[in-house]
Specification:
190 residues; alpha+beta; Alpha-Beta Plaits; 3 domains; 4-stranded antiparallel beta sheet; globular; binds iron/sulfur cluster
C-alpha cells in the first residue's frame, strides 16, 4: 500500500515536473536574495553541512582504538588509488592499520571509501582547507586522520573566525560563539 502511494506520487511528480518547478523556485529565490560578502578568512568562515565531503577522518571507539580493521576495501574501491593501508595484528589480536595514508592531492572526494567501509571507520568531514604549495604535505597519515575535524554540528552557518598568519601554513580558527544562518541573512523578508 505504502509502495503504491509512493509510486503514485512519483508518477504525478513526473507528469507535473515538480522537480523542475522546485529547482526553478530555488533559482528565483537566489535571484531575488540579498548579496552578502563573507569576511573570509579574516573574520568569518563558512561551516559546511554534514553532507559535505571534505578532509577524511578515522573514528575511534571508547577504548581509543581505531574502528578500522585494515580490510583495505577503501583502498581497493578508490578510483584514484590514493589510499595506502598496511595491516598488523595488535596486542589484543585485532587487525588494525599500521600505515593508513591518503594522498589528498589525488583524492576526488567522491566518498566511495566512506560507502565501502564495513566498520564505519572512515568518513569525510567538514574540513576543506587542505591546500599546500608542496604536494608531499598533502599526504595525510593515520594520526592526522584520527585528529581531523568530524562532521559539523553547526553546518550551514557562518561562524566568527580568525586568520592565524604567523603559522605556516596559515590557518583559520573558528570562534565558539553562535554563527548566523546564511539563508536567513540573504532572505529579503525582513
Ligand atoms: S573520497 Fe574517493 S577519491 Fe578520495 S580517497 Fe575516498 S574513494 Fe578515493
Ligand atoms: S577504513 Fe574501513 S574500508 Fe578502509 S581499511 Fe579500514 S575498515 Fe577497511
Amino acid at each position: 500500500m505504502a509502495r503504491s502511494s509512493t509510486h503514485k506520487r512519483s508518477w504525478i511528480g513526473w507528469v507535473f515536473f515538480t522537480d523542475l518547478w522546485g529547482g526553478l523556485r530555488l533559482t528565483l529565490r537566489y535571484m531575488f536574495s540579498k548579496t552578502i560578502t563573507h569576511h573570509y578568512p579574516d573574520f568569518e568562515k563558512w561551516v559546511p553541512y554534514p553532507r559535505h565531503r571534505g578532509h577524511h577522518f578515522i573514528k575511534t571507539n571508547d577504548e581509543g582504538d581505531v574502528n578500522c580493521v585494515a580490510c583495505e576495501l577503501c583502498s581497493k574501491i578508490c578510483p584514484c588509488d590514493c589510499i595506502t593501508v598496511i595491516p598488523f595484528e595488535d596486542a589484543k589480536g585485532n587487525r588494525r592499520p599500521e600505515v593508513f595514508d591518503i594522498d589528498l592531492a589525488r583524492c576526488l572526494y567522491c566518498g566511495l571509501c566512506e560507502d565501502a567501509c564495513p566498520a564505519d571507520a572512515i568518513k569525510l568531514g567538514q574540513e576543506y582547507e587542505v591546500s599546500s604549495t608542496r604536494s608531499e604535505n598533502l599526504v595525510v597519515h593515520l594520526e592526522d586522520l584520527i585528529a581531523a575535524p568530524r562532521k559539523s554540528d553547526n553546518g550551514g552557518q557562518v561562524m566568527a573566525a580568525k586568520l592565524v598568519k604567523d603559522e605556516a601554513p596559515k590557518s583559520v580558527t573558528t570562534g565558539t560563539s553562535d554563527g548566523f544562518d546564511w539563508w536567513e541573512r540573504i532572505s529579503r523578508k525582513e
